[in-house]
Amino acid sequence: MTVKVLIADDQAMIRAGIAMILAAENDIEVIGEAVDGVHAVELADRLSPDVVLMDIRMPKMDGLQALRQLTKPGRVAAPRVVVVTTFDDDEYVYQALRGGAYGFLLKDSGAALLVEAVRAAAAGEALVSPAITVKLLRQLSSPSAPPPAADLSARELDVVRLVAKGLTNTEIAGRLFISVGTVKTHLGNVQAKLTARNRVEIAMWAWQSGIVDR
After folding, report:
1. What is the pLDDT of residues 108-140, one digit of tens each?
2. Is 29 helix (H, G, I), strand (E, B) or coil?
3. 102: closest CA among 18, 181, 201, 1?
4. What region does 109 belong to: left with phi over 0, alpha with psi -120 to 50, or beta?
5. In order of start, what are the domains of the chain with their CATH numbers?
6. From the Swiss-Prot or TrEMBL record, what is one GO molecular function term (predicted)?
């Protein structure tokens, strides 16, 4: 199935560069380009993309506000938003992930990671640039955070720890010697138990709960 992508960035050259990278993939189609946050929300309503690649600093409405509009509760067929920005400010990342983003990439992450992030978001997974994943999640941990939920099994905790380290489902499967399908099953169970919206929130919970080796 082809993944329909909307690009939202106020710089024409950035939009063109991203579009060119994605156009080389047989399973991805760029269906629209937005020049600001307001335009992004309007096009998302009209074009129903599967994934929105969203810059943060844009005129009229910034990417974080647009993200909240696109992921607000009750929205029908909400797209999965991946934030793509030059800024790795901790507060930006935190707000984006708390706002329901399915990924956070720096613009210098490279073409391969961009394509992987689009496919991951379309599959209901999340990808954060390795350059900021562990740094960010460590900083989000808190001494007052609650202890790990008692109803997570030992294997579920193993999977959660690897998610918190930024590993993909395939990498987790290889590390634990289980199938990718089994990893997805464990993550689905964990997501339900923690009432987490996506794997990023699972990773954030892991760091805040102190179950990840520093």
Report:
1. 878 888 898 898 888 877 777 665 655 666 565
2. strand
3. 201
4. alpha
5. 3-132 (3.40.50.2300), 141-209 (1.10.10.10)
6. DNA binding
The secondary structure element, H or E, covering residue 37 is helix 37-47
CA distance 149 to 89: 30
Rg of the chain on CA atoms, in Å: 17
Q: Which amino acid is at 205?
A: W
Query: For 51, phi and psi rounded to 5 degrees?
Result: -135, 140
Contact 96, 201 (CB under 8 A): no
Neighbours of 22 (CB within 10 A): 21
How many alpha carbons fall within 13 Å on the CB side of residue 196?
24
**Residue 150 CA, distance from chain mean position:** 27
Residue in this structure with the two tokens 């562990």, named with its chain if needed: 134
Q: How far is the C-alpha of 90 from the C-alpha of 39, rounded, in Å?
A: 26
Q: 128-145 burial by CB neighbour count: b if 16+ within 10 A, else e?
A: bbeebbbebbeebbeeee
Query: 104 in helix, strand or coil?
Result: strand
Q: Which residue has the higher pLDDT, 49 or 201?
A: 49
Residue type, 139: Q
Q: What is the pTM of this model?
A: 0.69
